[in-house]
Design a protein that fits this description.
By secondary structure, the chain is of the alpha+beta class. It contains 8 helices and 15 strands. The protein has an 8-stranded antiparallel β-sheet with strand order 1-4-13-6-7-8-9-15. It is globular. The termini are far apart. 20% of the residues lie in helices and 27% in strands. The longest helix is centred in the N-terminal third of the chain and has 24 residues, at 4-27. Helix 1 (4-27) packs across helix 6. Residues 348-359 have a biased composition (Basic residues). Belongs to the glycosyl hydrolase 16 family.
Length: 372
């Protein structure tokens, strides 16, 4: 009988912690005040003839990956974008993904969409939502990524974020995570904020990662106007368990859905410095919005997310970076959870390759010979 108060107190403590966690998590996820646009107001088809399907009201699109839509009918400028933006689609006789791109490039902005990922067996499938200017600056491009990595049936989707500036592909800044929901069951909002001061990645208005600009980053901080892209493609050679599990086209078509688009930024010509310089008013407006600052409650939510769902961070990968990159904020309690490979000591799996992963696989010589 003497143990009952202890048990009761423990139960009360557990309930308090449980409700505190979910209160902080979901209150931080209160909706932003966003102005959504239709697909045609902001985007255009990039690649995958017939594999981009618009809804009748123009508010949403589906991107498909399948085996048979094959032969891409690309205009010359689309071929240039695919080849020069690390999006070479080489094996189109076998399978075809698809993608779209924003009509403008933006000097800073808030880029967002509700996304629903394919279900069932999705190993080898990658869905990407990201900003880039690789079609303009082939060797010095900037990029901000969400990449969703498919899995075998019964295993959850995982995803990674990454930051590149000025062609710094040899200094990848990727982090990998799990989600607290099934992203194939319903739509969830994924957002990228990019300002002159910071970068924030959001999932359902929960901040999951922040990169604060500092002088030591130099050109590694993205600084040139970028387009917004979304793609789905076959990444069998690396996406799931390091390439162990491939895309199985018996489950095709793989369908990703996008809706409620947000493009809030300053359109700019990447080759005209004057146009980018004229974005100061829009930058000030962008930085005044509620999504541009991480409130104390949102910071608690971000810390909880990273404690529970992040399973790889480049900041703790001391084999790769003996000295952490300058933007890394090393949290001792967080660091203790990771090995010197940047992976969790317990739970979580991350088979990392040192090579930069492109949105669509780049063909090797043997790949081209096989497709010939």
């Amino acid at each position: 009988m003497g143990q009952l108060p202890v048990r009761r107190n423990f139960s009360l403590f557990f309930l308090f912690f449980f409700f505190f966690f979910f209160f902080s998590f979901f209150c931080a996820a209160s909706s932003f005040n966003l102005s959504v646009i239709s697909f045609d107001q902001g985007y255009t088809h990039l690649f995958g003839e017939g594999n981009l399907v618009r809804s009748s009201d123009g508010r949403s699109v589906r991107l498909l990956l399948d085996r048979y839509t094959g032969k891409l009918h690309l205009k010359p400028f689309q071929l240039y974008e695919i080849f020069c933006s690390f999006k070479l689609y080489f094996n189109f006789w076998k399978s075809s993904g698809s993608g779209f791109i924003s009509a403008n490039l933006y000097k800073h902005g808030f880029f967002s969409a509700n996304i629903k990922l394919p279900s069932e067996y999705t190993a080898g499938v990658v869905v990407a939502f990201y900003t880039s200017n690789g079609d303009v600056f082939e060797k010095t491009h900037d990029e901000l990524d969400f990449e969703f990595l498919g899995n075998v049936k019964g295993k959850p989707w995982r995803f990674q974020t990454n930051v590149y500036g000025n062609g710094s592909t040899s200094r990848g800044r990727e982090e990998r995570y799990r989600l607290w929901f099934d992203p194939s069951k319903e739509f969830h909002r994924y957002s990228i904020l990019w300002t002159a001061k910071n970068i924030i990645f959001y999932v359902d208005e929960v901040p999951i990662r922040e990169v604060i600009r500092n002088e030591a980053m130099g050109g590694d901080y993205p600084s040139k106007p970028m387009s917004l892209y979304a793609t789905i493609w076959d990444a069998s050679n690396w996406a799931t368990s390091g390439g162990k599990y491939k895309v199985d086209y018996n489950y095709a078509p793989f369908v990703s859905e996008f809706s409620d688009f947000v493009l809030d930024g300053c359109p700019a010509d990447p080759l005209q410095l004057a146009s980018a310089a004229g974005c100061s008013d829009k930058d000030a407006e962008l930085e005044s919005n509620d999504y541009s600052a991480i409130t104390p409650l949102r910071r608690i939510s971000m810390r909880k997310f990273r404690q529970k769902y992040m399973y790889y961070s480049y900041c703790y990968d001391t084999l790769r970076y003996a000295t952490p990159p300058p933007e890394c904020v090393i949290i001792p309690s967080e660091k203790r959870r990771f090995q010197d490979t940047g992976r969790l000591k317990f739970g979580g799996s991350h088979k990392k390759s040192s090579k930069r992963r492109s949105r669509v696989p780049v063909a090797t010589t043997s790949d081209r010979q096989a497709a010939a």
